[in-house]
Amino acid sequence: MTTKCQTKNIAIPTFKSITNHPVRAELISEWENMLGHQLPTLPPFSSFWDELPKLFDWLEGKYVFKRVPSFSYRGDEDRSWTAPPTVQSWGFSFPLEKIRYASANQLCVKLGYKNATRIIEPYSLRRTKEGNLLLHSITKNTGEHRAYRVDRIQSAEITDISFTPKYEIELTASGPLQVLPAKRTAVRLRRRSSKSKGLAYQSRSILKYIYECPICIKKFKRKKYDSKLREHKDKNGIPCPGRTAIFLGREY
User: Fold this and answer.
1) All domains of the chain, ordered by start, with CATH?
2) Is the pTM of this model over 0.85?
């Protein structure tokens, strides 16, 4: 940082200098307007600002970030498995990528599970030896450690409630997560006549693939299985930088 500031011929910033900067008041008042449209959920300004003293102390060699412990592996969990960093999520009504975003930004999630909701701190994704994915978390109001079967999660909503990690956050690898779909009973069509064949063909022709931009949360319906996004705008008409969508499911 020192070398870059010297190259730019500017003073090395300190926490005191930015605290007393006249633009700070404008930053606070415009926090939502400047960044709210670019993120699924904007972390509160206080959670960002409260971390800066540690950052500047670290830059000056006065602070060493303490590593928090990770969750212990359960006996039924596969220790050799880690969450894939760059493939799409499959077969769920909610994008698991939202939970990763919340985890990376230390925001709690309102989780729907077994027809009830609870506020959780998301930390880790593990896989059991039977192939089930588990989301490890801490319940916000009780501090209880819970692991949820991913294929049984009914909804996930990012909140603006921030948290200080008590355990290592393991959901911050770049790119979407791969999530296998819940097991479903296969349905076979009987081909009894040319008429039934025509109906089957017609059904396939109107199949739509549903995608969602993880940045602006805008949904797209496509005839082909393709997660690439072209230039588009968010709900406020502002250009969105998102170029890779999350697969949500199919519809006819």
Assistant:
1) 2-59 (no CATH), 97-162 (2.30.30), 194-251 (no CATH)
2) no
